[in-house]
Amino acid sequence: MLGPPLLAFAIVYLASLVALFISSFWAVDPFTTEIVRHWNLDNYRTIFQSSAYRTIALRTIGIAAAVTLTDAVLAFPFAYFMARIARPRSRAVLFVLVLLPLWSSYLVRVYIWRLILNENGVLNWTLRKLGLPAAHLAYSNWAVWLTFSYVWLPFMILPVYGALERIPESLVEASRDLGAKSFQTFRRVVLPLALPGVVAGSIFTFALTLGDYVTPMLAGGSSSQFIGNVVYGSVGIANNVPFAAAFAAIPLAVMAVYLLIARRMGAFEAM
Amino acid sequence: MESRAARIALGGWTLLVVLFLWIPLALIIVYAFNKANVQSWPIPGFTTHWFGVAWHSQEVRQALWLSVRAALTTTAAALVLGSMAAFAIARFKFFGREAVSFLFVLPIALPGIVTGMSLNSFFVFNHINLSFWTIVIGHSTFCIVLVYNNVIARLRRSSPSLIEASQDLGADGWQTFRFVIWPVLSTALVAGGLLAFALSFDEVVVTYFTAGAQNTLPLLIFGYIRLGQQLPIVNAIAFAMIVLTVIPVVLAQRLMRDTGVLRRGGTAALTAK
């Protein structure tokens, strides 16, 4: 029974990954814009030798890391409250309050930050009311960071909550009976057991940021290009699929390493 | 037990995070009724005019129709393939079982640009023209896992002895399916299907690479926002899309409340966006 779905899947998805990898070693004829199947490393050389492309790759990875950290900091106390302090009723309410933003349209949630951050938006209106100077966040790396942190936050909260919820109360009691203070119990018992949840959440926040081009395009400006934007441009406008494939191989390689580490930390069970 | 101060601090933090999650969503609802053409705050007055304009736009209608058809077809494919895979994995132990599970998570654990770009290379490589079907194939790769996760969680909770009992009592394959398996699985399938529909309907990052010149509703809006065109229409559609994606999720959550698997399927799935 596993045959047909697996076969379909393997053919389409794995073959696609292989196709991506192979075509990154090809080239495009500059005159005919046809793909030329002669093997070379020029695409990779271009990426590593051009400082502009290096900056873009580093910006992408850097902002993905910053977003992951921000979401972990925002999510952990929230998930802790939800799993270990809130009563069952309010826990159910909080759960829905996280689930609905997670599922509501991604594009819409990115768009709304454009409206909030623009010069005449809600943010500056609020700042003016408070007598503070206007912020000029629109179309900057800050806007990209903030928007990403917003849209991916639920993806961090849910696995962390799941991990915290699964910690048996008896372990916490045992720790207390053995004389540990609250903070010691938290640091030595709760935190290590919650860590796989944080790592599982970070897979989402990191991978999703790494592979996006919509948010950098809508929230950021021309100076906030991500790897995704270069790939998007190379496929759409320049029609240079081999180059796009080579650049897309970078997030693929980064994620492969990340997933291997996450797997060792037991994050897959927490997903 | 946490100290009183710690509980209050955690409660306050939780409240702030809830506000952070929900104020922007509340704002989009307000903007949808914005009277002015300019998107500044505060809005000068309320109108429902733009909903009508959006509804009568030919472009919007075509995109909506394409999105609905793609999402329905994707949902059907995900239901069939996802539940077949779940059956095989839950029932039989075999070498590489874990690897297969991992494989299904891959399209959502890998960055969207990688999935999109790989599919695009695959189609170019095989000289397949981008069409309605390439959109469906792309969406199916990451929607299968939604159904798979929901069904496998339900199967693990149900006892295989139910099926044995049915067979011992003389039921044939169809009867066992109709009276034993289906009642156990139906809500899991409906929930998985609803989530697959919601995800497919909203997807934009991968879709761009598999749609070519066609416009799904998210691609159309993406274009409008990028060029700063038709923003009042975008606001109205944004409001409608929030409502449209929320309904299936609320339904799915109600169906799966007993098992709580939505959370897992949910987090895993959502990543494709």
CATH fold assignment of chain B:
MetI-like fold
CATH superfamily of chain A: MetI-like
Could you give the distance between the termini of chain A? 25 Å
As residue ranges, the low-confidence spans of chain A are: none
CATH class wording of chain B: Mainly Alpha
Tell the overall outline of chain A: globular
> Which class best fits the helix and strand makeup of chain A?
mainly alpha
Helix run count of chain A: 13
- According to DSSP, the number of beta strands of chain A is 2
Number of domains of chain A: 1
Q: Compute the number of structural domains of chain B.
A: 1
Helix content of chain A: over 70%
Structural commentary:
The complex is a heterodimer of chains A (271) and B (273). Chain A has 271 residues and is mostly helical. Chain A has one domain: MetI-like (MetI-like fold, Orthogonal Bundle). Chain A is built from 13 helices and two strands, in the order αββαααααααααααα. Chain A has a two-stranded antiparallel ribbon. In chain A, a hairpin with a 6-residue loop joins strand 1 (27-28) and strand 2 (35-36). Chain A is globular, with a radius of gyration of 22 Å. The mean pLDDT of chain A is 87. By secondary structure, chain B is mostly helical. Chain B has a single domain, classed as MetI-like (MetI-like fold, Orthogonal Bundle), CATH 1.10.3720.10. In chain B, 78% of the residues lie in helices and 0% in strands. Chain B contains twelve helices and no strands. In chain B, helix 3 packs parallel to helix 6 and helix 7 (161-168) runs antiparallel to helix 8. The longest helix of chain B is centred in the first third of the chain and has 34 residues, at 58-91. The two termini of chain B are 39 Å apart. The chains are: A mainly alpha (271), B mainly alpha (273). At the A-B interface, helix 1, helix 3, helix 4, helix 5 and helix 7 of A face helix 1, helix 3, helix 4, helix 5 and helix 6 of B.
